[in-house]
Specification:
The structure holds two protein chains of two kinds. By secondary structure, chain A is of the alpha+beta class. Helices cover 12% and strands 22% of the residues of chain A. Chain A folds into two domains: 90 residues, no CATH class; 121 residues, no CATH class. In chain A, the strands form three sheets. In chain A, strands 5, 6, 7, 8, 9, 10 and 11 form a seven-stranded mixed β-sheet that branches. Chain A has a two-stranded antiparallel sheet with strand order 1-2. In chain A, strands 3-4 form a two-stranded antiparallel sheet. In chain A, α2 packs across α3. Chain A is globular. By secondary structure, chain B is an alpha+beta fold. Chain B contains 31 helices and 20 strands. Classes of the chains: A alpha+beta, B alpha+beta. The interface between A and B is medium-sized, with 35 and 32 residues.
């Protein structure tokens, strides 16, 4: 399977002023959120979603959600995200059956993610991430467990996007495993997916790849300066593979401050 | 009835004109009759299951589709797929098509670059054989494709053409021909291709029905003509039955046109059946007429005799045949109900035409000549009939044992009978449509289907992993070998979705509710609306199978219901419905209807004959010879592996209804002969002699007519013809063996003879014999007695005979006289007896031989109460007997007193002159000497 990098809508330039879409600050006072358009984010990168129903890759979608016992309303994601989040906050997402609640959840999650990416409006000055091939990255290059090195700098300890927790929870461990070292060629993401079993020992990761085993797939990589520190961050959207896991995307924002170093979770991310 | 026949004979032109007018009127309506074959007609009427299935279809959609079947070794070659895509595109444009499901449209759920891809399997035509093979392997994993649209070996595939909801059976021909035309270009690309579905099957049945009307109808007429020619050889006698049957058909078709009743697979045999059955009464009437003409009677007198002798008989035989046909209408299956009503109505019309046309025609044509042309209408010599009866009577035990043996052997075959209610099977093995249906069954999942509706009553139940697993487990059970070829459900689709997301090799259900909820975000409800309700409280498992055998299907459905009862989560309420279920219910209704028809018919026959002859034994004995053919019929079906189906289920009831006519003819004739011949044996000779020709002629004509049905293209109709002919033949044998033996053991006196108005209301209540008795006691007593019809001068008894009975004068008059010198003449009249008077009791009670002669003075009817009857009454009805003896004693006492008085007055004298060839004298009432 051949993977492409997310399509850039403009040539990447660390020193340029990103083209911004029609950003709107609706309900910003009460929610502290920035409405997200279907246009590229401030870093100049387009964000894609899985459309409800079809599951296809789209940059925006319409969804009809029940907002009361009798009434349904159509929202465009991400265009109508502020209204959608406002309606959810008012309890509109409690109506309907499980499927409708799941749709609410999907739309809300996509909206919050969009807002997460667009929280900081300034264009990043430094980019050490967009040129990296995450689809074939060694596991050791990615943060396995999020380390909250400077909790005092964040609004809450290890705060940030709720699912930005590292790769650890997506990996299935097998303590009897005696595989090759993670920093070797064996333990790596291949063509955007890792499937197999891992064992952590002596600060190293051992793995055994298994095409039918559990694992994860990078379904999307978004680029944005999510914490506003001037360094471009990559946000990996990972879907678990294998029967043990749900189908909810895990968000793994990663960044690095040098061209060759390992990636870590950016600190001081917005709480959404 | 006699009056109607006489009236028709007296005003022939009036009735012929009337018949002609009605016939012309009917002819104007015949064009309105349509041929219509509906799958629903083969189902049970007003079945709540049908309504439930309708609701299910409304909620989840139809189970059925027309399949465009394709077979080739290189199924997915580029040229073939391009041609197929074009054809499917054209089919989709048709106004009767809702959509077409094929590999061009069924989504191949997969993940591409992390996103869901729902493009169809054939979104792109495979560029090479390896890609094509891989695609087939992928498609075969999809439960919505495997066995439904693609055979497991990858050599056959299908496109399912779903028709619009408003499409009805009336569109069958158009759909069939349009689809055949559109699929024609595929001929050049695929080794085999055809369209098959219920429109094609119905269309085939419909065209066969029309064809059979042209093919079989002339054959039936020819068979009847041939039989009539060989047996009767008289132009009028040959043409009359054909004419009455023809008019009956015309009237019946006219009625169908007026009422809008269409011809279907079963009612289509009614015209031919009327040709076959409608001729029997004609033959009996004509036989009687010819017999009278052979005796030299003029046509007018012969017609009168025919009316008198056969009027009542044809009425009763019509009633039994009518009830036989009508009893089929008791069946709850639509087509059988329609057939029962239509055929019985046709028969009623035939009866009306027969009783009006035959006397009119014979009167107009003056009988069509002298006597009968055939020796068969000339009664066999009395000696032959006598010899046969003597042989039969002498070997009656042997005959009964032989018939019982035949019945026992036949009965042993009954458990082997199988049931088959599959309309496709009815087309016969040579049918192309049947072969195509069988091909679908072999290569794909078959045309048969049913649904299992599982309801929890709670919203979102089937969004829980546990309940999805319940569905999956149920499907696993259904897909065991020899059961369903394909099962699909909401769980199947969710498995595919989950598999696509998780990039699994084989379909697997999500294991947690959370995963289900996440998957639901990407579910297109339109794709699953056939499997789950919008609130996810109700799910449907669609089961496709190729089980054509009804018994196998019954076992399968029994197992399914067993699973529901024992294995399914008790919180779920499951119900099986669908075409297979309705078919099975129709089968069960058919079997029940069959037994009900036969049972009711035999009871009815027994009842009618019991009432007619006022003896329950007569009814039972009449039913016995007709029960034998039923047993033989079922036994033959078992041994010959003829299944119980829509055609054979009618055979027994119809054939018995017809066959019992011969029994009735025998019994009524015997009853008539008994009035003229004191000897039962002689009455039986005459019965056999008189009834043998028409009974044989009608039976042969019926057998020939029914055998015409064996030329039908429909297996059930073929089998119906064969079995009906068998029943008639067996009934004929039973009527010449069991029936004479049975009825000879009875004294058949009918209510008509016994209970005239005057007798019941005037004479009997005032008779000294019945004084103080209740009506039912009188009736019971009379029914155990005999009636003697005497001509003037005929003797009730003669001097010297054993005294074995007492007599009650019912009509006319009797005198008792004695001879002084032992000669045969009457020297002294002892007494004269008028209606209501009793005589002959002294001799009986004294056990003395008769002292005098009892002679009828005029046409006289006398009730003979035999010693046997008195003994029976004493034994079984002591209260009646006690009252009778008291009455007799009173009567004798009164007469004794009167006799003494008259003797004292010297009123007893010799007869002055002779009348009616015997001496007449003033009555001398000496109770001790008068008899």
């Amino acid at each position: 399977m051949r993977f492409r990098h997310p399509r850039r809508t403009q040539p990447r330039a660390t020193s340029r002023t990103p083209r911004r879409g029609p950003t709107t600050f609706l309900c910003a006072l009460c929610l502290g959120l920035l409405a997200a358009p279907a246009a590229p984010n401030p870093s100049g990168w387009q964000t894609y979603f899985r459309a409800p129903g079809s599951g296809q890759r789209v940059s925006q979608y319409e969804i009809e959600l029940r907002v009361s016992e009798q009434e349904k309303r159509r929202f465009q994601v991400p265009g109508d995200c502020p209204e959608l989040i406002q309606a959810a906050a008012e309890g509109a997402n409690q109506w309907g059956g499980q499927v409708e609640k799941s749709q609410w959840w999907k739309a809300e999650t996509d909206c919050r993610y969009s807002l997460f990416l667009n929280h900081h409006t300034g264009a990043p000055q430094t980019d050490y991430v967009s040129g990296y091939d995450f689809h074939n990255a060694p596991l050791s290059m990615l943060p396995l467990q999020r380390q909250c090195s400077r909790p005092e700098t964040a609004p809450l300890p290890c705060a940030g996007f709720s699912r930005a927790t590292g790769l650890h929870h997506l990996l299935s461990t097998d303590d009897s495993l005696d595989g090759s070292a993670a920093n070797g060629n064996g333990c790596r993401i291949r063509n955007g997916a890792f499937r197999g079993w891992v064992r952590f020992a002596d600060g190293e990761i051992h793995c055994k790849e298994d095409p039918a085993g559990p694992g994860f797939r990078i379904v999307a990589i978004d680029y944005s300066d999510v914490n506003g520190d001037g360094f471009l961050d990559a946000v990996l959207r990972l879907f678990p593979l294998g029967p043990r896991h749900g189908r909810t995307a895990s968000i793994l924002p990663v960044t690095r401050r040098s061209p060759e170093g390992a990636f870590s979770v950016p600190e001081g991310m917005p709480l959404l | 009835m006699q009056a109607v026949l006489n009236r028709a004979a007296s005003k022939p032109w009036l009735f012929l004109s009337l018949l002609l007018m009605v016939s012309l009127l009917a002819a104007t309506q015949v064009g309105k009759v349509e041929v219509q074959v509906s799958a629903e007609d083969l189902l049970v009427q007003d079945d709540p299951e049908r309504e439930y299935y309708r609701q299910v279809r409304e909620r989840f959609g139809d189970e059925q589709a027309v399949l465009l079947y394709l077979e080739d070794t290189r199924l997915l070659a580029k040229d073939k797929l391009e041609a197929l895509r074009t054809v499917i595109g054209e089919i989709e444009q048709q106004p009767f098509v809702q959509r077409v499901e094929s590999l061009f449209s069924v989504p191949h759920l997969k993940t591409v670059e992390g996103y869901l891809n729902k493009e169809p399997y054939l979104a792109e035509i495979p560029p090479d054989p390896a890609s094509a093979e891989k695609l087939l392997q992928e498609a075969a994993k999809n439960p919505f494709v495997r066995n439904v649209l693609l055979s497991p070996n990858g050599r056959s595939m299908a496109a399912a053409i779903l028709l619009k909801e408003d499409v009805t059976g009336a569109d069958d021909n158009r759909i069939t021909h349009t689809l055949a035309r559109l699929a024609k270009p595929l001929e050049a690309h695929y080794s085999t291709h055809f369209n098959i579905g219920f429109p094609q099957i119905r269309s085939e049945i419909s065209s066969r029905i029309q064809q059979e009307q042209y093919d079989l109808f002339p054959l039936a007429v020819l068979a009847l003509l041939l039989a009539l020619f060989l047996l009767l050889r008289h132009l009028v006698d040959i043409l009359t039955p054909i004419l009455t049957a023809g008019l009956s058909i015309l009237w019946t078709f006219g009625l169908m046109g007026v009422l809008g009743i269409p011809l279907n697979v079963v009612t289509s045999i009614v015209p031919i059946l009327l040709i076959v059955v409608g001729s029997t009464e004609d033959i009996h009437l004509l036989s009687e007429f010819r017999h009278a003409r052979d005796e030299g009677r003029p046509p007018r007198t012969a017609l009168g005799l025919m009316s008198r002798k056969m009027g009542r008989t044809v009425l009763f035989t019509f009633i039994t045949t009518y009830v036989g046909f009508l009893s089929v209408g008791l069946n709850r299956i639509e087509v059988l109900w329609q057939f029962g009503l239509l055929a019985s109505t046709g028969l009623l019309l035939n009866f009306i035409i027969t009783i009006l046309l035959i006397p009119s025609l014979l009167a107009v044509t003056n009988g069509g000549g002298q006597g009968s042309g055939s020796r068969l209408f000339q009664r066999p010599p009395a000696a032959l009939a006598e010899r046969y009866w003597q042989w039969l009577h002498g070997h009656r035990l042997l005959v009964i044992v032989a018939m019982a043996g035949v019945a026992l052997v036949a009965a042993s075959g009954i458990p082997r009978i199988e049931v088959n209610h599959n309309p496709v099977e009815s087309l016969g093995e040579a049918s192309e449509v049947r072969r195509q249906a069988a091909r679908i069954g072999d290569q794909l999942s078959g045309l048969e289907s049913f649904s299992i509706i599982i309801d929890s009553g709670i919203r979102d139940t089937f969004l829980k992993a546990y309940y999805l697993e319940e569905l999956q487990a149920f499907q696993g059970f259904l897909e065991q070998p020899e059961r369903a070829r394909s099962t699909t459900s909401f769980a199947s689709y969710l498995s595919l979705l989950n598999t696509a997301f998780q990039e699994l090799e084989e379909p697997a259900l999500p294991r947690s509710d959370d995963v289900v909820n996440e998957l639901m975000i990407f579910l297109d409800y339109d794709r699953v609306k056939g499997y789950v309700s919008e609130d996810y409280s109700t799910a449907r498992i669609l089961v496709r199978h190729n089980i054509a055998d009804t018994a196998e299907l019954e076992l399968f459905l029994h197992a399914v219901n067993g699973y529901i009862a024992n294995e399914l989560d008790p919180g779920l309420d499951a119900r099986v419905t669908g075409d297979s279920v309705l078919t099975l219910r129709a089968t069960q209704a058919m079997i029940f209807g069959q037994l009900q028809s036969i049972g009711l018919l035999l009871v009815f026959i027994a009842l009618v004959i019991s009432i007619l002859f006022t003896d329950i034994r007569a009814g039972l004995l009449a039913a016995a010879p007709n029960a034998v053919p039923v047993i033989v019929l079922f036994g033959f079906m078992g041994f010959a592996e003829i299944p119980l189906n829509i055609g054979t289920t009618m055979a027994a009831a119809i054939a018995i209804g017809i066959a019992v006519d011969d029994t009735m003819h025998f019994m009524l004739r015997y009853n008539q002969e008994l009035k003229f011949y004191k000897s039962q044996s002689q009455a039986m000779h005459e019965t056999i002699r008189g009834e043998a020709p028409p009974v044989i002629v009608t039976s042969v004509a019926l057998i020939a007519g029914f055998l015409v049905f064996t030329l039908s293209d429909f297996a059930p109709i073929q089998q119906f013809g064969l079995l009906s002919a068998l029943v008639i033949a067996t009934a004929l044998a039973a009527d010449f063996t069991l029936t004479p033996i049975a009825i000879a053991s009875l004294r058949l006196i009918t209510l008509y003879d016994m209970l005239s108005f005057r007798l019941r209301h005037q004479l009997i209540p005032h008779s000294p014999l019945f004084r103080g008795m209740r009506d039912w006691q009188i009736r019971r007593f009379i029914l155990s007695s005999n009636i003697l019809d005497l001509k003037p001068g005929e003797r009730v008894f003669s001097a010297g005979e054993r005294s074995e009975a007492i007599f009650l004068v019912m009509e006319g008059g009797v005198e008792v006289c004695v001879s002084r010198n032992g000669s045969d003449r009457c020297d002294m009249v002892v007494d004269r007896f008028q209606p209501g008077d009793l005589f002959g009791e002294v001799g009986l009670l004294a056990s003395e031989r008769r002292k005098g002669n009892a002679i009828a003075l005029e046409p006289t009817k006398v009730l003979e109460i035999t010693r046997e009857g008195i003994n029976e009454a004493t034994q079984h009805h002591p209260l009646i007997a006690a009252r009778m003896f008291e009455n007799i004693a009173t009567d004798i006492s009164h007469r004794w007193v009167r006799f003494i008085g008259r003797a004292t007055n010297n009123e007893i004298c010799n007869p002055p002159k002779e009348e009616h060839g015997h001496a007449v004298s003033p009555p001398a009432q000496d109770p001790t000497t008068r008899d």
